[in-house]
Design brief:
Elements: E1 3-17, H1 22-30, E2 38-52, E3 56-60, H2 67-75, E4 82-87, E5 91-94, H3 107-117, H4 122-136, H5 151-163, E6 169-172, H6 181-196, E7 200-204, H7 208-214, E8 217-222, E9 225-231, H8 232-239
Parallel strand pairs: 3-7, 3-8, 5-6, 6-7
Antiparallel strand pairs: 1-2, 1-4, 8-9
Helix pairs in contact: 3-4, 3-5, 4-5
Protein backbone atom coordinates (compact mmCIF):
# COMPACT_ATOMS: atom_id res chain seq x y z
CA UNK A 1 0.00 0.00 0.00
CA UNK A 2 1.29 3.48 -0.89
CA UNK A 3 2.21 5.98 1.82
CA UNK A 4 -0.04 9.08 1.80
CA UNK A 5 1.62 11.03 4.63
CA UNK A 6 5.17 10.71 5.94
CA UNK A 7 6.12 12.81 8.97
CA UNK A 8 9.79 12.33 9.86
CA UNK A 9 11.24 13.58 13.17
CA UNK A 10 9.59 17.00 13.08
CA UNK A 11 9.94 19.56 15.86
CA UNK A 12 8.28 22.95 16.25
CA UNK A 13 9.04 25.60 18.85
CA UNK A 14 7.04 28.76 19.43
CA UNK A 15 8.30 31.85 21.20
CA UNK A 16 5.75 33.19 23.66
CA UNK A 17 6.21 36.86 24.44
CA UNK A 18 4.94 37.79 27.86
CA UNK A 19 4.19 41.25 29.17
CA UNK A 20 6.57 41.79 32.08
CA UNK A 21 6.24 44.26 34.94
CA UNK A 22 8.01 47.62 34.69
CA UNK A 23 10.39 46.46 37.42
CA UNK A 24 11.36 43.27 35.55
CA UNK A 25 11.86 45.20 32.30
CA UNK A 26 13.98 47.83 34.13
CA UNK A 27 16.22 45.15 35.73
CA UNK A 28 16.58 43.49 32.31
CA UNK A 29 17.72 46.80 30.78
CA UNK A 30 20.13 47.53 33.68
CA UNK A 31 21.71 44.09 33.17
CA UNK A 32 22.47 45.06 29.60
CA UNK A 33 19.52 43.17 28.08
CA UNK A 34 20.90 39.87 29.34
CA UNK A 35 18.48 37.00 29.64
CA UNK A 36 15.33 36.47 27.63
CA UNK A 37 12.02 38.14 28.35
CA UNK A 38 10.26 35.59 26.17
CA UNK A 39 9.39 31.95 26.89
CA UNK A 40 9.86 29.08 24.46
CA UNK A 41 7.21 26.41 24.00
CA UNK A 42 7.90 23.12 22.23
CA UNK A 43 4.66 22.30 20.41
CA UNK A 44 6.10 19.21 18.71
CA UNK A 45 9.16 17.21 19.77
CA UNK A 46 10.74 14.82 17.28
CA UNK A 47 7.41 13.50 15.99
CA UNK A 48 7.26 10.77 13.34
CA UNK A 49 4.08 9.39 11.79
CA UNK A 50 3.31 7.34 8.69
CA UNK A 51 -0.21 7.21 7.26
CA UNK A 52 -0.96 4.78 4.46
CA UNK A 53 -3.28 5.59 1.58
CA UNK A 54 -6.92 5.01 2.57
CA UNK A 55 -6.32 5.11 6.33
CA UNK A 56 -8.68 7.08 8.59
CA UNK A 57 -6.75 8.57 11.50
CA UNK A 58 -7.84 10.62 14.52
CA UNK A 59 -5.26 12.89 16.19
CA UNK A 60 -6.32 13.02 19.83
CA UNK A 61 -5.14 14.66 23.04
CA UNK A 62 -5.86 17.43 25.50
CA UNK A 63 -5.59 21.13 24.60
CA UNK A 64 -1.96 22.05 23.98
CA UNK A 65 -0.93 18.48 23.17
CA UNK A 66 0.19 19.42 19.63
CA UNK A 67 -2.49 17.73 17.53
CA UNK A 68 -3.64 20.85 15.63
CA UNK A 69 -0.02 21.94 15.13
CA UNK A 70 0.75 18.51 13.65
CA UNK A 71 -2.26 18.78 11.33
CA UNK A 72 -1.09 22.22 10.15
CA UNK A 73 2.32 20.76 9.31
CA UNK A 74 0.70 17.96 7.29
CA UNK A 75 -1.41 20.55 5.42
CA UNK A 76 1.65 22.70 4.67
CA UNK A 77 0.29 25.72 6.58
CA UNK A 78 3.31 25.44 8.92
CA UNK A 79 6.92 24.43 8.34
CA UNK A 80 8.83 22.42 10.94
CA UNK A 81 11.97 23.76 12.63
CA UNK A 82 13.51 20.31 12.14
CA UNK A 83 12.52 17.18 10.23
CA UNK A 84 10.35 16.90 7.15
CA UNK A 85 6.76 16.23 6.04
CA UNK A 86 5.82 14.56 2.77
CA UNK A 87 2.35 14.01 1.28
CA UNK A 88 1.18 12.21 -1.85
CA UNK A 89 -1.59 13.61 -4.07
CA UNK A 90 -3.94 16.54 -3.55
CA UNK A 91 -4.33 17.63 0.08
CA UNK A 92 -7.42 19.60 1.15
CA UNK A 93 -9.60 20.15 4.17
CA UNK A 94 -10.59 22.52 6.92
CA UNK A 95 -7.84 23.72 9.20
CA UNK A 96 -9.22 27.17 10.05
CA UNK A 97 -12.54 28.83 9.21
CA UNK A 98 -12.09 31.15 6.24
CA UNK A 99 -8.46 30.23 5.58
CA UNK A 100 -7.73 31.16 1.97
CA UNK A 101 -10.79 33.43 1.78
CA UNK A 102 -10.50 37.13 0.96
CA UNK A 103 -12.93 39.24 3.01
CA UNK A 104 -13.53 41.86 0.33
CA UNK A 105 -14.40 39.37 -2.40
CA UNK A 106 -17.78 37.74 -2.96
CA UNK A 107 -18.53 34.11 -2.21
CA UNK A 108 -18.37 33.40 -5.95
CA UNK A 109 -14.90 34.95 -6.32
CA UNK A 110 -13.71 33.14 -3.21
CA UNK A 111 -14.83 29.78 -4.60
CA UNK A 112 -12.49 30.39 -7.56
CA UNK A 113 -9.71 31.75 -5.33
CA UNK A 114 -9.90 28.98 -2.75
CA UNK A 115 -10.31 26.29 -5.40
CA UNK A 116 -7.16 27.54 -7.13
CA UNK A 117 -5.24 27.56 -3.82
CA UNK A 118 -6.31 23.93 -3.32
CA UNK A 119 -5.00 22.98 -6.76
CA UNK A 120 -8.11 23.08 -8.98
CA UNK A 121 -7.99 24.49 -12.50
CA UNK A 122 -10.40 27.28 -13.49
CA UNK A 123 -12.28 24.87 -15.76
CA UNK A 124 -12.56 22.30 -12.95
CA UNK A 125 -14.00 24.94 -10.59
CA UNK A 126 -16.46 26.16 -13.26
CA UNK A 127 -17.70 22.59 -13.84
CA UNK A 128 -18.24 22.00 -10.12
CA UNK A 129 -19.42 25.52 -9.21
CA UNK A 130 -23.17 24.80 -9.10
CA UNK A 131 -22.58 21.66 -7.04
CA UNK A 132 -20.34 23.61 -4.61
CA UNK A 133 -23.02 26.28 -4.08
CA UNK A 134 -25.79 23.70 -3.74
CA UNK A 135 -23.90 21.71 -1.11
CA UNK A 136 -22.97 24.86 0.84
CA UNK A 137 -26.61 26.03 0.98
CA UNK A 138 -25.36 29.62 0.56
CA UNK A 139 -27.84 30.27 -2.27
CA UNK A 140 -28.57 33.96 -2.84
CA UNK A 141 -25.56 35.05 -0.74
CA UNK A 142 -23.01 33.64 -3.19
CA UNK A 143 -22.50 37.11 -4.71
CA UNK A 144 -22.30 38.85 -1.32
CA UNK A 145 -18.88 39.85 0.06
CA UNK A 146 -17.81 37.17 2.53
CA UNK A 147 -16.99 39.76 5.23
CA UNK A 148 -20.77 39.84 5.78
CA UNK A 149 -20.96 36.04 6.24
CA UNK A 150 -21.52 34.42 9.61
CA UNK A 151 -18.92 31.88 10.76
CA UNK A 152 -21.42 29.16 9.83
CA UNK A 153 -21.70 30.46 6.26
CA UNK A 154 -17.90 30.58 6.02
CA UNK A 155 -17.77 26.99 7.14
CA UNK A 156 -20.38 25.81 4.65
CA UNK A 157 -18.63 27.37 1.68
CA UNK A 158 -15.09 26.44 2.77
CA UNK A 159 -16.07 22.82 3.44
CA UNK A 160 -17.95 22.58 0.16
CA UNK A 161 -14.98 23.85 -1.87
CA UNK A 162 -12.61 21.50 -0.03
CA UNK A 163 -14.65 18.33 -0.61
CA UNK A 164 -15.20 19.21 -4.27
CA UNK A 165 -11.44 19.31 -4.95
CA UNK A 166 -11.58 15.49 -4.90
CA UNK A 167 -8.56 15.29 -2.57
CA UNK A 168 -6.45 12.19 -1.97
CA UNK A 169 -5.80 13.41 1.57
CA UNK A 170 -8.53 15.18 3.56
CA UNK A 171 -7.74 16.99 6.81
CA UNK A 172 -10.34 18.24 9.30
CA UNK A 173 -9.70 20.24 12.48
CA UNK A 174 -12.30 21.03 15.20
CA UNK A 175 -13.94 23.22 12.58
CA UNK A 176 -17.15 21.16 12.41
CA UNK A 177 -18.16 22.58 15.79
CA UNK A 178 -19.00 25.88 14.06
CA UNK A 179 -21.86 24.73 11.85
CA UNK A 180 -25.44 23.99 12.88
CA UNK A 181 -26.43 20.40 13.58
CA UNK A 182 -28.06 19.51 10.21
CA UNK A 183 -25.03 20.82 8.31
CA UNK A 184 -22.65 19.05 10.70
CA UNK A 185 -24.42 15.78 9.87
CA UNK A 186 -24.15 16.58 6.17
CA UNK A 187 -20.40 17.21 6.57
CA UNK A 188 -19.89 14.00 8.55
CA UNK A 189 -21.80 11.99 5.92
CA UNK A 190 -19.56 13.52 3.23
CA UNK A 191 -16.42 12.69 5.24
CA UNK A 192 -17.64 9.09 5.61
CA UNK A 193 -18.29 8.99 1.87
CA UNK A 194 -14.71 10.14 1.16
CA UNK A 195 -13.39 7.48 3.55
CA UNK A 196 -15.56 4.88 1.80
CA UNK A 197 -13.98 5.88 -1.51
CA UNK A 198 -10.54 5.04 -0.11
CA UNK A 199 -9.42 8.60 0.55
CA UNK A 200 -6.94 9.22 3.36
CA UNK A 201 -8.51 11.05 6.29
CA UNK A 202 -6.91 12.77 9.27
CA UNK A 203 -9.25 14.30 11.87
CA UNK A 204 -8.60 16.42 14.97
CA UNK A 205 -11.58 16.44 17.33
CA UNK A 206 -12.56 16.40 20.99
CA UNK A 207 -15.76 14.56 20.02
CA UNK A 208 -14.71 11.02 20.90
CA UNK A 209 -17.99 9.46 19.75
CA UNK A 210 -17.59 11.11 16.35
CA UNK A 211 -14.00 9.97 15.78
CA UNK A 212 -14.93 6.46 16.92
CA UNK A 213 -17.54 6.35 14.12
CA UNK A 214 -15.36 7.87 11.41
CA UNK A 215 -11.80 6.70 12.12
CA UNK A 216 -10.13 3.32 12.50
CA UNK A 217 -6.78 4.46 13.94
CA UNK A 218 -6.09 6.77 16.87
CA UNK A 219 -2.88 8.72 17.55
CA UNK A 220 -2.64 10.21 21.04
CA UNK A 221 -0.40 13.23 21.64
CA UNK A 222 0.78 14.60 24.95
CA UNK A 223 3.10 17.62 25.38
CA UNK A 224 4.13 17.50 21.72
CA UNK A 225 4.92 13.78 21.58
CA UNK A 226 3.03 10.73 20.32
CA UNK A 227 2.43 8.48 23.33
CA UNK A 228 -0.01 5.99 21.75
CA UNK A 229 -0.79 4.80 18.22
CA UNK A 230 -3.46 2.09 18.17
CA UNK A 231 -7.00 1.21 17.03
CA UNK A 232 -9.12 4.31 17.67
CA UNK A 233 -11.34 2.67 20.29
CA UNK A 234 -8.29 1.75 22.40
CA UNK A 235 -7.09 5.36 22.33
CA UNK A 236 -10.59 6.70 23.09
CA UNK A 237 -10.87 4.28 26.04
CA UNK A 238 -7.54 5.52 27.40
CA UNK A 239 -8.63 9.14 27.09
CA UNK A 240 -11.85 8.33 28.91
CA UNK A 241 -9.92 6.52 31.61
CA UNK A 242 -11.54 3.18 30.79
CA UNK A 243 -8.18 1.54 30.23
Amino acid sequence: MATAIEVSNISKRFVLRHTRSMKEAFVWLIKGRKGDLSEKFDALKDVSLTVEQGETVALLGLNGSGKSTLLKHISGVMRPDAGRVGTRGRVAGLIEVGAGFHHDLSGRDNVYLNGAILGMSEQEIAEKFDSIVEFSEIGQFIDTEVKFYSSGMYLRLAFSVAVHTDPEVFLVDEILAVGDEPFQKKCIDKIKELAGEGKTLVVVSHDLDLVSRICERGVLLEHGKIIMDAPVQDVVDRLRGVA
